Amino acid sequence: FSENADYLDASRPTAVNLRKALDRMDRVVKKSSGQPIPQILEAMRAEALAIHREDMDMCLRISEYGLELVKDGDGVLTHCNAGPLATSRYGTGLGTLFLARERGVALHAFCDETRPLLQGARLTTYELQKAGIDCTLICDNMASIVMKEGKINAVFVGCDRVAANGDTANKIGTSGVAILAKYYSIPFYVFCPSSSIDFTCKTGGDIKIELRQPEEIREKFFEKPMALPEVKCYNPAFDVTDNALITAIVTEKGICRAPYTESLAEAFMK
Question: Catalytic: 9?
């Protein structure tokens, strides 16, 4: 099992929650060592369901705290996907929008398409439309103009790994959005379950960034290639947003603010 767990973990080197879940399953397997296979499988199933229930609970509590950060009629910019397709039930970065809808709070989401894999276009707008939430799809390079035009009151993003000092790894382009938000004095919020906090990483410099295939940039989703096949491509799947650009990190334990080394430790390491 350990070898297979390592293989699965290698598919997501930037995110930390998969490794944490695999480690939990590995402990169950080792604890059940020597038992009949059906019993081991049942123990693994029970642990997997426990992880799922815990994630749903964390997402709900995170979403509740997020409601404190917005008011009826606000415009919220999103990047990538942090909804039910990425997590459980409500999601993290999108959870507050779903909860707001349930409670009669009208929010308007402006969704970055999120190049090159278009998670914002393919996943986020799908989830929001199905839930009846007002949303507008924009290209990534339109984030600045909607901020300048006063359409955005807050930025909501999820995260793949948060370092002990609050530096945050998330989908490529997130740090650029954070820089824009800082310039236009728009609050930038990271929605983060404890499963995505890695206290072994002191700063974002300790986070490994996944590099992906050039075909995602040159030709994916296009009828014809958009660049010559021999052109060099640099395709990091994630970037790290400096903690100085983050207004607050919203967790299931509450809303953490700078200095994050202190607030995150106080919330999760008591």
Answer: no
SS3 for 230? coil
Place of tokens 């779903």: 98
Q: CB under 8 Å to 181, separation ≥6 — which residues? A: 77, 147, 152, 155, 187, 188, 245
For residue 75, which of 42, 46, 100 has the smallest C-alpha distance? 100
Token code pair at residue 95: 């959870």
pLDDT tens, position by position, 74-85: 999 999 999 999
- Catalytic residue among 55, 112, 140, 160, which? 160
Q: For 86-135, write each residue's pLDDT tens digit.
A: 998 899 999 999 999 999 999 999 999 999 999 999 999 999 999 999 99
Question: DSSP character for 211?
Answer: B
Domain ranges of the chain: 56-268
Please state the pTM of the whole predicted model.
Answer: 0.94
Q: Phi first, then psi: give them for residue 250, nearest 5 degrees.
A: -95, 115
CATH 3.40.50.10470 describes domain 56-268: yes
